[in-house]
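Aim 2 progress update. The chain analyzed this quarter is reproduced below.
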Amino acid sequence: MSRYAYVNGSYIHHEEASVHIEDRGFQFGDSIYEVVYLHKGRLIDQDPHLDRMERSLGEIGMEMPMSRAAMKLIIQEMVRKNRLKTGLVYIQVTRGSSTRDFPFPKTYRPTVVMTARRMPVFDPKKALKAIKVKSVEDIRWGRCDIKTTQLLAAAFSKQIALDDGFDDAWMVDQEGFVTEGTSNNAWIVTKEGKLKTRKADHDILNGITRQCIIRLAKNKGMEISEEAFTIEEALNAKEAFVTSASACLKPVTQINDQTVGNGEVGLISSEIAQLYADFLEG
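Predicted structure tokens:
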């Protein structure tokens, strides 16, 4: 089946889609993106994702390129044209193309790109395959709360982890605290059963799935603390896991060369995964 992409008002065969060679998203990473998960035909947390996109654009001096209603129509058409039932819709907005120079152009026409791809349905009974993470220095810029396409530092960190036989990296700040994974938020479950994840500030992306799980867990009566933790704390924790729109939830059973807890997928991680799966079903 042919895949379709959306580029500046046109639906194009995926392999033929392109942007101008001087697009600032291509040359400077001067762009914002979002990824919305589609579960059995239902777009999950679409408005929170678009809210975050609008905020990120505002933080770099841009506005939404079209009305919320118009963007939703295009997203829905991308789902239809790609015959997507479960998968991801990727949205990117750049500051458009102009003669290459560092200052922002005084006038510009934003570039809007969307792609879509299939994914398997999240099933907590099948998807909870544990991962191993490697701790690395966080070398990213100081505004990680903005969902920019400047992802080289994260990609570099993940490649270091993969080259060393791990599945992902947990980035650590100069004070020794974990910020987040390369494309996900980091969590631990303390020995007392309390959930801990870093406070949403400039050092991390405030994940939409993160926000959803905080809400679901609180409704279930679980204790949650939004505060930073160290690698040592994580190794002494009962459980650890990561969350994101694309992966939903993945347990972490090894950090560097040490196991977390008993080295198995924990009961609380499994319970939260089931809570999220129930939420996806509506």
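The mean pLDDT is 97. The chain has two domains: 4-120, 125-280. These observations will guide the mutagenesis experiments scheduled for the next reporting period.
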